Amino acid sequence: MEERKWEDLExxxxxxxxxxxxMESLLLYVPFVCKSWYKASLxxxxxxxxxxxxxxxxxxxxxxxxxxxxWYDIHKCSLYSFIKFVVGLSHGNCTGLSxxxxxxxxxxxxxxxxxxxxISLSLPVDHFQTSESLSILPTxxxxxxxxxxxxLGSSDNLVDIITQISLACSKFSSLGVSIATIGEKEAxxxxxxxxxxxxxILRGARMDLKSLVIILHGCRNxxxxxxxxxxxxxxxxxxxxxxxNIKTFMCEGSMRADxxxxxxxxxxxxxxxxxx
Length: 276
Known about the structure:
This is F-BOX DOMAIN CONTAINING PROTEIN EXPRESSED. Helix content is 38%, strand content 9%.
């Protein structure tokens, strides 16, 4: 039997395969395999799920944008220009996007205009510009009516963001926030605006038991809740008993920082809320 060659693969099949390839390979290697691969790599379907890597390649000691500039002998290419170029390859078909460190308000505005089909959006963690960039996010949420999954690098403007999600994104089901501060206001907003949320990831948050109870008491459709390594409550059997119906409830490593508020945020509050 004659062995089939990759370059002879039907175009639609090739596009389907390349759509599963990482961004670096699509940009730097796939176009140079053969003409059919180059042509297929330009299909918008190959660019529906975009994950911008932020790690430095240990072999090259360069980030992806730096490798891109070297590979194509480009002397000037800002992060905004690079993101704009890559996102533009999707021709409005991008449904999943994970941004790199250093993104700006300009980037978010561009994405809001050019990615109307966005279902999943992830913003980086531990970035000094995140606060400034997130300040404009509430005004852009309305352009992503199909948004279902959002990952934020901080809890800045969280109340406004969640409020806008409730108004514009009817299928929204999953929220993750890194380095979050979840007080009663934030917890109440989650319950009021996202009562049917399925997945909530607040790992490493500053959140007391009272705020956690507000969420557990109000979000009855939660299937996945990650509150591991939080500060403000203990990961003991009392906490586990708060959510018997949540399929995946992770709270390992969480602990109270101040035991003086036991009567307010501790087990007594648990009894008050659930036992009357």
